[in-house]
Amino acid sequence: MALNATFVKNEKHSGSPAGDKHADGGGMYLLITASGKYWRMNYRFADKRKTLALGVYPAVSLEKARKRREAARELLAEGIDPSAAKREEKQSKADAAANTFEAVARDWLNKTAAKRAAITQLKVKTWLEKDAFPFIGKMPISTIGPRDVLDKVVRKLEARGAIDTAHRLKQLCGQVFRYAVVTGLAERDVTADLRDALTAKTKVHHPAITEPKLVGDLMRSIFNYTGHPCTVAALKLSPLVFVRPGELRAAEWAEIDLDAAEWRIPGAKMKMKVDHIVPLSTQAVEILRSVQPISGHGRYVFPSLRTGERPMSENTINAALRAMGYSAEVHTGHGFRATARTIMDEVMSERVDLIEHQLAHAVKDANGRAYNRTAHLPARREMMQRWADYLDKLRIGADVIPLRTANT
What we know:
Radius of gyration: 34 Å
Number of strands: 7
Number of helices: 16
Helix content: 40-55%
Shape: rod-shaped
CATH topology of the largest domain: hpI Integrase, Chain A
CATH class of the largest domain: Mainly Alpha
CATH superfamily of the largest domain: Intergrase catalytic core
Oligomer: single chain
Strand content: 5-15%
Structural class: alpha+beta
Number of domains: 3
Order of helices and strands: HEEEEHHHHHHHHHHEEEHHHHH
Largest sheet: 4 strands, antiparallel
Strand order of the largest sheet: 1-2-3-4
């Protein structure tokens, strides 16, 4: 005779040491002992008698216990042992709980650290720890959906106006998910569904002085600046090498050959992830030799003013420019690239492909193939020397006749 909810609720333990069994049909019964009421199901599998635990009353009601019984019977009909299936499910849940987004992300960070510069590794780690782990870090990575990343990570960043960071975090989360897919911890990269959901990034224009006369004023201000010797050297070198501020301040002595007048930057440090060669003008070599007695014993050419273990702060160059009277709306450390790009093209008539290559932009030949890092190196070396000489002439106030204007 089938059980009913009232009987299950009111029936008491009789005192029997073995407990009292009350059948409900299909092998399921209610076991009542001194410690509580338990749902059980007897069945046979591979000619062996087995018992499956279906739950504890009242957390598992009569109705829920019956549904679990039917699910077990369906497994048996398919030739699957319900007890084994339950153990696998339990293990799967345990694995999921262990493989949280944070655990997988930290494993990914460690496994891929060699591909990134130390400064980049620290940035990536900080972004994840600050803006991702607090919100999805404890979630099993296999259970995270696109809306979790969108609502709990991306939208929070967008709400505070950090649009660029929102895009970076979305990309980083995607890398973590793809790592999880490869390692069998997730089915797919759920961030792929967010392609059109993010607020569009605003194109950043770095303010730059591009009028030769004003560049001459800027160069005089730089040479008259009396800050820390490393800061002065970094300021003087900035207009001569065309690199991004982050690449300049992370320069290492091991990358620079002063005798060969070359600075070889590994791809891990470059935005385009391609090795880059910077031919050094005689002026650039002189600047580097002047700072070598100060920082040459350490790793970084321009070390942090607080500790030589890290490179110069990303704000140092811009702070020096502000101290010299150049506001963020007039010129920035990144603006030296635009200064060179504009004047070398519009005033000096240098070859645009050489300028673009020296700026580490993607440059392709007539067949659409990207140039390798040594392409046109002799021509680029001559161009960099002409540029350094031109800046010297501007600094001392010599008349420099434009070879052409922007409108010709």
